[in-house]
Specification:
Rossmann fold; 44% helix; five-stranded parallel sheet; alpha/beta
Chain lengths: 172, 172, 172, 172, 172, 172
């Protein structure tokens, strides 16, 4: 059986890991859709799809999930009426969607697909937006992100990138 | 003579009805452009163009305007410099535009078209955004919407859709 | 019951009339999708969506189908994997698709929708491409098109438009 | 040597002039990219690319920079990962980029291009957003904009356009 | 008075020069729209908009037209119903269009603009498509192109680029 | 070291296998870009990106390349001037491009990247277009495609899909 899990992974954090782990307990494989694939170098989406592919691959490697995690970058369409078929046209056949997002759940269920909830995560810290805020303000963030992903972010100089995006001062 | 009236109809409410009625007193037919046709399942635009077509058709039917109201869904271009010609390429020939929106008025007048104001409506309640807020918060909303449209919204489970969009909790 | 029929109507001809007529024998209403809505002033698609709306409306009027034919312009997406949902997001709810096009049939059937064939038409003459060729070369074409549509095409100076598109001589 | 300077010029103001002047002290020519070229008639971008071309041309004329300033309108792509090549595909070959924007600087430097800072400008008044606010509220704004551009804005009735955009009262 | 002339300039050749020259006899300035601005590295459109800007600038320089020729790259929209306003939104205000293309002529005239013909050019040789064919096959082509443009094409290694596009051998 | 190989895989055939095999002799991993990712259900591109993902995954599985082949669907932009950065934004960091296509080679080399040729393949039979022709005409095709991919195509009823696309008889 193959599951589907959709995220933006800006960056991939321990909350995502818990969801992947839980899904892989039930599924043979998990397709990990890297959403908003064409957005990058913005405050909300600093990393490119390719960099996020690397994050997913690093984690798969670390945890020996190489044959079981299938990352697929998918761009936004900003049209929810065709969004399910857009996603499905990009991925190998799947059996179940894992999501707690009420809109995602409704849209997939409306197409007759099976949807399952994901483990509840404490969003206080395990949230992309919080981790990016910590990166910008200089607070601790590395404990919320897998070690291999921390390494990648350092290699890409991700924190300084995020700060130059944040402070870009358009002023127009 | 044929008039043009542009709205988003999220949902169609009694304010729209007053405008249509006033325009039909002067015109043989009224083209009703259903704007932002490709946006749906968002907080601001929960209903699809097709669902909004059904709302307009239900009202036309109810009021015996079938031969006189011509609904046409038109997507946004987000480019005002070509917007008038975009709209005009989608609709049968028209003589007059009905609008109180100052930008719409200027853009159509700049093309040499005749523009007329619409009856003033009390926006406290007769506004899409207020009606959607009422739907979300559980306040009364049905008195602001024609009965046939209330019926359609119930059939589509529109209120629960709007709530699952509102509470989607992206948290990323 | 409501049917769906998709065409480009460049221009609307007697073949389309036969199909509409046959469908209306079985259905209460027929949604007539005016495809490639954003293409016009080309050799293959000389008329705008709005002009084609007028053609459908003229025919509905002539034949007393005003309450039963619902024209809806829909632009091309050029992405068949999401095309069915694209079309469905634009139209009021439908029960059956009328089409002889093998790809249209497969795509809608793959979504679990009921698809019916349309009456066979002699394509030698009742084909948009043939009628446009006749317009360009100066051959007879009016016998293949409803009288009201002939009138509209004359009003729009459609034949001379088609010729100026055809002979545009880019030469670059 | 040819420099590159990117702005939105909504409207062109004395801050832009200082930057152009400083760059022309070092460069033979300066390519002036008119960004967000396809956006107009919005609160943030009231003027069309063509109108902004006229502003740049008026200033070039006034200051005898006709052979040295090369205005080029370039639309937004909203994809920073390909943005540098997008801009470069639109302009004649350049040697140096002038920018204080930290994101622009990083993106061009990542492509191995030379980037220089521009003179610091007092953003309290010399900022497009502040000038547009002054136009809307009826405060003084003409002292911040070159005389020839003031003339153009008056000819286009720019202030009243901006106000009709601002007060458009969508209310949906 | 300001004229408008639209071309693709793949490459700029002596036929374009004749048209510019004739227009400049009647006009103070000529806006030269570089069409299909976003297409490049194809057989029909080998050069980028920026490279074609350079061709126009080189010719202006050579002929002392610097203050009178205003090149503006404009991308295709592939929607003729909004095309005139698209072009007009990109350029400074113009008085007259110069064109022999029957479609361009009709579209601008339909907007109430004045359109003038251009000098007839012998298309046997003075045509972009013929010059590109000569480049590919190794025939003489330099006599049909201004010397300064020949120089630019050599600098860009334009002929070998065109051949690698032509022979790309996709074979899929 | 990581290589990059770009194909459309309509369908994946033995020619692709030879290239992957050769590249994997030199590289640790090979990123396999599934091009034209958003095109499907056309004569030239019958299979969706997701179906082509399955083909690549089936082959990786069969040949024990699971940790070494990284398939990534990437849509067309139809803008060669930004195409390299578009592709690179989608994939994990790569060291070398494998391609015999002269345009691809030039574009990547112009960005300073290393490009290597791929083994020469007899295009008489090992070509997507030839295999699709054979599928349509009923000739033998299975000997040119890996067994696991034949199995997938049969499961998807790919041949009958291709025929219904081919014979769609638009006739408009």
């Amino acid at each position: 059986m193959r599951g589907l899990f959709i995220g933006r992974f800006q960056p991939l954090h321990n909350g995502h890991i818990s969801i992947m782990k839980a899904a892989l307990e039930e599924m043979d494989q998990l397709v990990v859709v890297i959403g908003s694939a064409e957005t990058s170098f913005t405050e909300k989406d600093p990393f490119t799809a390719g960099e996020r592919m690397e994050m997913v691959m690093a984690v798969s490697n670390e945890r020996d999930w190489n044959d079981r995690i299938i990352p697929v970058p998918v761009r936004d369409l900003n049209r929810y009426s065709v969004w399910v078929d857009h996603v499905l046209s990009y991925v190998p056949k799947i059996d179940i969607i894992y999501s707690n997002n009420s809109l995602t759940r409704s849209l997939f269920m409306a197409k007759g697909m099976e949807v399952k909830g994901t483990p509840l995560i404490d969003r206080t810290d395990l949230s992309g937006v919080r981790i990016r805020e910590r990166m910008i303000s200089g607070e601790q963030w590395k404990m919320f992100v897998p070690a291999s992903v921390v390494g990648l972010i350092e290699e890409m100089e991700g924190v300084s990138r995020l700060r130059s995006i944040f402070g870009k001062g358009d002023g127009t």
